[in-house]
């Protein structure tokens, strides 16, 4: 049985890697006024952060169901099944779109998977699925492994400016004001499919130190881990952090990723995150 792997743009898997591993991607969009841009296709992360400085904060939208149906039916000519991995159903209807389209597409069996998270941590599931599909594993075996991964997946994000969360309806005005006055850098994580505060920390430096402590709790077992440093237009800082972490955690394989336009709309420039998962 030949299995295709599909994800959405919020996994932020580089194009070269998607092509190398035969990963198919459905884009979400950002909308500035009357202009709609499909992320990873019409607008890059760096272009997005420049646009935001000059314009109103955009809105975001999920892919239309028809786009999923079209892709699934196109894949049916070459594949028997599709594993479709998407950002958390608690923050977007994209996963539900894949479920609906899976019931409509003809000639192919669709296995939608709710990552319950986003960004390159969502990408960890996608990479695992693509590697297993290439090795000839069945869709059922791949889905079982993805469920198993949920037990060791962790991700923590620090936002630099609370106003984006507040404007996007993710944080009340009062909380944003108090947070700004106290210089609070809340650590966020996904819980029950939605973004919630994990801890309130006073400074950026302390917030990043706390994330490292959380990684240490898992990595001290010595087991091999895969990790991603995720930044919102802070590449130099991300590279510096990666060098420090690689020296501290020899059993962890680090990569650098980014918060692209859709997720960046809600978190804002300067945000930083770290996610990890135990390797097979």
UniProtKB/TrEMBL annotation:
Keyword RNA-binding included in the entry's annotation: no
Q: Which Gene3D superfamilies match?
A: 3.30.1180.10, 3.40.50.10170
Q: Which residues cross the membrane?
A: none
Q: What InterPro entries does its record include?
A: DegV, DegV_C, DegV_domain_contain
Superkingdom of origin: Bacteria
GO MF annotation list? lipid binding
Please tell me whether the keyword Nucleus is annotated for this protein: no
SUPFAM superfamilies from the xrefs?
Answer: DAK1/DegV-like
> One Pfam family of this protein, by short name?
DegV
Q: Which UniProt keywords apply?
A: Lipid-binding
Q: What is this protein identified as? A: Fatty acid-binding protein DegV
């Amino acid at each position: 049985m030949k299995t295709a792997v599909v994800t959405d743009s919020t996994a932020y898997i580089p194009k070269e890697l998607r092509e190398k591993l035969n990963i198919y991607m459905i884009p979400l969009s950002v909308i500035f006024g009357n202009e709609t841009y499909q992320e990873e296709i019409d607008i890059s992360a760096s272009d997005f952060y420049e646009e935001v400085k000059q314009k109103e904060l955009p809105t975001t939208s999920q892919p239309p169901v028809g786009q999923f149906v079209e892709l699934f039916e196109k894949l049916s000519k070459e594949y028997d099944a599709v594993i479709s991995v998407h950002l958390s159903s608690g923050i977007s209807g994209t996963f539900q779109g894949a479920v609906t389209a899976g019931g409509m597409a003809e000639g192919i069996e669709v296995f939608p998977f709710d990552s319950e998270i986003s960004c390159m941590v969502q990408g960890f599931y996608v990479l695992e699925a693509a590697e297993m599909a290439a090795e000839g594993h069945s869709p059922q075996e791949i889905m079982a492994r993805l469920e198993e991964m949920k037990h060791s997946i962790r991700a923590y994000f620090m936002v630099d400016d609370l106003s984006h969360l507040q404007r996007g309806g993710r944080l009340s005005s009062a909380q944003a004001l108090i947070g700004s006055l106290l210089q609070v850098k809340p650590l966020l994580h996904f819980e029950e499919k939605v973004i919630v505060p994990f801890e309130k920390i006073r400074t950026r430096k302390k917030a990043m130190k706390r994330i490292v402590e959380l990684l240490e709790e898992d990595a001290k077992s010595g087991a091999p881990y895969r990790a991603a440093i995720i930044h919102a237009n802070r590449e130099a800082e991300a590279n510096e952090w990666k060098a420090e972490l690689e020296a501290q955690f020899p059993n962890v394989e680090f990569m650098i990723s980014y918060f692209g336009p859709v997720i960046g709309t809600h978190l804002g420039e300067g945000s930083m995150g770290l996610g990890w998962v135990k390797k097979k």
